[in-house]
Description:
The structure holds two protein chains of two kinds. Chain A is an alpha+beta fold. Chain A has three helices and four strands. In chain A, strands 2-1-3-4 form a four-stranded mixed sheet, covered by helices on one side. In chain A, strand 3 (62-65) and strand 4 (68-71) form a beta hairpin. Chain B is mostly helical. Chain B has helices at residues 3-14, 25-42, 56-59, 69-76, 87-90, 105-110; strands at 20-21, 84-85. In chain B, helix 1 packs across helix 2.
Amino acid sequence: MNNLPVKVFALSTCIHCRHCKEFLDEMKVPYDCVHVDQLTGQERKDVVEEVRKLNPSVSFPTVQVGGNVVVGFKKDELIRLLEL
Amino acid sequence: MDAKELYAALRKLQEPKGYFFNADEEMTLPLLESLLVNKERFGYMACPCRLASGQYEADKDIICPCVYREPDVAEYGACFCGLYVSRAWNAGEIPHQTVPERRPPEKVLAALG
Lengths: 84, 113
């Protein structure tokens, strides 16, 4: 495993987001997580804009792995990027 | 109403239309629970895997079953969140792949107000 920084943009109600985080936990990968549906006002706008820059379709989960972006829960891509 | 009651109620309605619940109950039941969470939050069952705004008009297209279910199930055998699938998908006759988001991002951004 490498130590690329991982940030998960997620929704608290989304099963794919939950499975993605469970997988990262299982693999003992440290990550930051933002539940965008639990943000409001300007903070929500700012984070959605951040997501949009990474993932133009503004879908979830959006996973930042260093300079890479994984759209959706794609285990193989996470394994490859994180060298798991 | 809990997820299991919702499951029974919706199944009777949706299966005759050709939409089946994902056979993996570790997907289906949490998704139904999330629909109930969103019903509580917004007053309607917004898709659990999309960012709802809380404004009914702006969220109409993603109220479950969303307007994207039909084309998604036709093309991928599953809807975006994986709640509804085709018979073939459940039977493993077609590959299970990540369904890309069909909803125009402008709708997400517009709903931010």
